[in-house]
Amino acid sequence: MPHRLRARALWGWRLGCAILLGTRVATATDVVPAVPMVRIPAGVYVPLTRTAKDPAAVAVAAFLLDERPVTNAEFLAFVTARPNWRRSQVSPLFADASFLENWTDELAPGPRAPLAAPVVRVSWFAARAYAHWVGKRLPATAEWELAAGAGYAGPDGRNDAQLNHDLYAWLARPVPALLAAAGGGRPNFHGARDLHGLVWEWVDDFNTAMVTGESRADNGLERDLFCGAGAAGAQDTGNYAAFMRLALRSSLQANNTTTALGFRCARDLPAPPLP
Prior knowledge:
Layout: H1 3-21, E1 37-40, E2 43-45, E3 58-60, E4 63-66, H2 72-81, H3 124-133, H4 141-148, H5 161-172, E5 200-202, E6 227-228, H6 240-249, E7 261-262, E8 266-268
């Protein structure tokens, strides 16, 4: 990346982080959605590709992950409480012109965005602000991929025939005019639903394509962008689905919104009590 573009990207990153740090958490008067969470055990994630500086495998500590993607109803509660994230008020720096364009009005999702369906056409900035508001965070890439790598019957889904059938069937279908309700998919081994087959999902370290061990602290601007979706068997260079995901990830910027890109939140596990 040329020096001028690197400088511009760094300026945008720092500005975005500064504003997001000012995003208020929910107050006592806010109606805060309560999304069930599942525990994802500690494990190891093997990135799809890596540079010579990146580890061959990434150790992931146990964490909590939303059981399902965030819905239109839940995002409506957020924009109701935080007017600066409404469609008419959000800065183009933080969401492009397609932000929530499937909603009838900025405070009425309407028939094209059923309340129980996953919210889509949200930017990384908006997803991250929502997560902060509810006292959570976006999952790191390694966390999301570890969770999504589980099969229906076991923690490793690479050889799960039914999982792979469902994944490829989803990738072959066009995006439907109306998305199904979030949480209706078959739970994986950890109890998480719709990591495959419903929407693509943002992760926190979107700008660190191909993952490093300290991904949430990594500002490597030479890397592609990163969002999560359908990770089973991603380290297999013959896996067509993995490279479809890579193509999407490398095309995104933090303010982008698309018809099938949503998110879910994560949270650190509480520290164990002192002996």
